[in-house]
Amino acid sequence: MTRVWQWNRPVTVREVLEDLQQERSIAYTTVMTVMDNLHQKGWVRREAEGRAYRYTAVSTRAAYSAALMNEAWSTSDNPAAALVAFFGMMSQEQREALRDAVRIVGHDDEAPAEPAERAVAETPAPPAAEAGQQTGERPSEPGR
Q: For residue 121, what are the contacts with CB-CB under 8 A and spacing of at least 6?
């Protein structure tokens, strides 16, 4: 997916293969299988071109990241605490980007509801969040 997002144009398996082979040895069939899996999962669409397919991303990398964050947040039994733990893992640069995003959306002048404030104040960040910050672990992308 990284190549498809970076190039922002329809790509063939051969193009992705040749680019990946600059970094490591990889078989054509491996790339073809991954591209087919991404198509089956709805991450890319494909159009036949001769005997090959051209693959195009269905959404942007930003939309994918947003969907991951939304999915993780919405499955929490305490969304406010999950957000606090997430914000606690952010670097200063990421917090500044978050502030900018909130300003763009236009919700920075709304006060949080009292139950959310209480839930946040009563819930410490989980130890796993601290470990992830130290190691720099991130969720995997489709196709990785």
A: none
Quote the tokens at residue 12.
Answer: 């063939």
pLDDT surpasses 50 at 67:
yes
- Give the residue among 15, 42, 44, 45 at the shortest CA–CA distance from 31: 15
Q: Where are the beta strands (DSSP E) in the chain?
A: 44-49, 52-57
Under 8 Å between Cβ of 120 and 84: yes
pLDDT in the model for residue 136: 42
The helix or strand, by DSSP H or E, that contains position 95, with its residue range, turns out to be helix 92-105
**68 pLDDT tier (thresholds 50, 70, 90):** confident
CA end-to-end span of the chain? 8
| Rg of the chain taking only CA atoms, in angstroms | 20
Q: Please say if the pLDDT value at position 38 is more than 50.
A: yes
Q: What is the DSSP letter of 117?
A: H
